[in-house]
Amino acid sequence: MILSSNSGTLPFIMIAKNIVKQPKSIVEVTITVPWTDLQTTWDQTLQRMAQDVELSGFRKGQAPVSMVEQQLGTRLQDEVLKTAMPNFLIEALKGTDIIPIDYPKYDLLSFTKGNQLQFKATVTNRPNVTVGSYKAIKATRTTPKAVTEEEVNKVIDDLYKRWSVKAGMQQPSANQPASTGPGSAVGQGGSINFQGGKPVVSGNGQASGPNDAFAQAMGALSPTDLKGKIKKDLETNVSYNNELDYEEAILQEVEKITTVELPEILIQDELNRMLVSLQRRVADMGLLLDDYLKGQGKTLEQLKNEWRVQAEKNVRMELGLAEIARMENVVISDAELQAEVDKIQDAKVKQQFEAQEPRLHLRHALRQTRTLDLLKKMVGG
């Protein structure tokens, strides 16, 4: 049992605390608080709640405090504990090496007005992480695969089909032959041409292929220019994916040299993230998750069980990278963080980053990215 006093955010207090560390970074903190350290919170909460209480014969907020207290009953105690327990937990953890990474779970052990408060708080502590020789990591950046003519043509064909539908192309029926008179879209002898940016048909009723009107609608000057732009885009995409594969290879090496007892809360968070990702992919296919699972013949729990090994690797990788960031003193300044927020164009999304939690998540993401860039320089593959 350890006595703790502090003159920080709370007035001088004297609480008793007993900290028990359990496997998988679970920590149980039993806290005992004398009534004298709780009375101020009780009185302030009662005064605040009394402002909204209406009792017969009294104006709202004007009833005697003793009557209001009786009227409030257990609601008053619940409100007091809601405020007091987190504050006393913060005090109890000051000076320790415990850094909670989840919301505490509180269990009231004993309390009545005028007597001491005793409760237990269960938290998940930030786990101890050990990373091996990360400066000796080996990974190879492969040469990007060349983009073929066939791949370029396939993209052009797909774009043209969609553009044709959007442009409202109508092919003539058997009893409505294509016009070949003055001003028609089909030239002499059934030759192909485009007019007004819309696809036309040849004299035999067949749709014409891509040409200048289509290319210009796609933001190019000509079919040749469009072909060059598409090839460049495909090459950029190949290079991007190739770089992602290289980064993934480095992160896999980080995971292999990272030793940590994984907290269950982090594994469950990663499983939920993987589930959200699946839901988005399923929605893109026009399906509901339940329908997808039925098609796979699996339950949600079975799916999560299958994912668990990968989820554990992902968490280990994330913690290993964060530990390297700490050892290399990688820091994201407030100015750098704000500069990233300022890049956001959507006003509603940008407003969300006025809150502290989203900013913390963004700062962490930027720190992880910078650490990965540092590792890429070290590896030099």
Spans of at least 5 consecutive residues with low confidence: 1-10, 170-206
Can you tell me the CATH architecture of the largest domain?
A: 2-Layer Sandwich
Strand order of the largest sheet: 1-2-3-5-4
| Principal-axis shape | elongated
Estimate the strand proportion.
5-15%
The description of the largest β-sheet is: 5 strands, antiparallel
Determine the structural class based on helices, strands and strand pairing.
alpha+beta
Number of strands: 7
From the alpha-carbon coordinates, what is the Rg to the nearest angstrom? 33 Å
What is the oligomeric state here?
Answer: single chain
Instruction: Give the domain tally.
Output: 4
What fold name goes in the CATH topology slot of the largest domain? Alpha-Beta Plaits
CATH fourth-tier homologous superfamily of the largest domain: Trigger factor ribosome-binding domain
CATH C-level class of the largest domain: Alpha Beta
Through-space gap between termini = 54 Å
Task: Tell me roughly what share of residues is in helical segments.
Answer: 40-55%
